[in-house]
Amino acid sequence: MRKYQQLALLLISCFSIGVLMMYKSENNRLKYVLKYVNFFGRNDAAVLRRLQNGTGIEDEDHLIKSAFSKPLPVWQLIGDSFHAYSAYWKRNELVAGGEAHVIVVGIKGAVVDFRCSFDVGGRSVQGKFRFQRDATEGVVDNNDATFTYYNFFCQVSRNFGEPEYVAFSDTRSTTKRQVKLRLRYVKPANANTNSNAIAKTTIKPHAHVRLPATMCVDLVSFNMSSPFGRNADAMLQFFLFHQALGVEHFLVYNYDELPEKVVRLLERTNLHLYGLPFNFPFQQTNTTTARIRQLMLTDCLLRNVNYAAFTMLLAPNEIVYPNARFASDTNRALQQQLRHYATETSRFELATFAVCFDERKKLLIDNVQYDPEVKPPHATLLYRLELPPAQLLLPTATSVELPLSSGFAHRYVDCQHVGKDGLHDWRNGVREDLMSHINTLRSEVDLLI
């Protein structure tokens, strides 16, 4: 009889332990759910506030996306010999009026003679036309160029509201037709404004904080048939490395050239791509690359000036490695470091290494050999967007060459013909703390690739 009692007691104990374990498991699940739902004893007013805040964030994201991509730039014919890409409205801060700034290319040697006006609420307001040729005209790649790059301006000296369109008519054209261009608003920046301060912009009431950095991507002049361009992992790493530095918004010129595989993989991340078409109306050659890059840079700066503290125009085979992320909670952020320079300094140049690209390497940063005799086709510049747009675009804008301890850039190239000095290891000139930071970025990208 005693044996049966012991067996019954054992069975009851096992059943009790099973029930206890099941209860503990269900209790943990319930706590997990309550942690995120907080259904019992909730404060409906607090819930409504959270919903309203969430809606505000969604509205802010939508407005930022619209701000970077609208109005969509596209080359369109104005007159008989000129094409316009994008148009920006800049209101004067100290005096009445403002002006439209339009990026234009025209047939080389064509006579510039236009009239301009603004469309404000359906009524036309006459403006005063002026233009500027590209500062490199007659200096860089001019011999074989079939086009000239211009900045068109249409000015008014009184306040009449925010115009929606600027219209141009070529007085020498036989059709005499007006072509309207949708305007994008640019709020003049304050050079004394702290880059972390609230940026009050004209078209995004919910988006109060400026983004630390954005990136403009040049797929116009980049050779997509190169070994780097055909390598999806290499193209992907361009975005992932810069995302690890704090860049989440990428404005891609000639977006259709971005491989579909790369786009699909990037859709799984939290970075944002903005596709900007570039149906350039003239033939592109090696001698016109610098001029086309300059007009892209002008659009990039004007498009970002209200929304980012910093921006850069890079090809996908160019990656920057600063000694800190663009923005963080610590004083080591690049944003904080650059405040030691005068506010008039708008451009920071990074030393650029021509690093040999080896497709067998999983990560780009593992390519360590560079050719010191290969010079980059253009300087790698980081732009601080705190100055008024007109000063940012001046060829004489103040620039500073950053020391190697502050960061550098890699331009991944094919080392088919190595210089007489041979290849060098770029790590030999990098400080230990900077190398440690780069290795941290490497580990983050290695987890994602």
From TrEMBL:
Gene behind this protein: LOC117569893
EC number: 2.4.1.-
Keywords: Glycosyltransferase, Membrane, Transferase, Transmembrane, Transmembrane helix
GO cellular-component term (any): cytoplasm
Protein name: Glycosyltransferase family 92 protein
Family in the record: Belongs to the glycosyltransferase 92 family.
Highest taxon listed in the record's lineage: Eukaryota
Subcellular locations according to the entry: Membrane
Pfam families found in the cross-reference section: Glyco_transf_92
Recorded topology in the membrane: Single-pass membrane protein
Molecular function (Gene Ontology), one example: glycosyltransferase activity
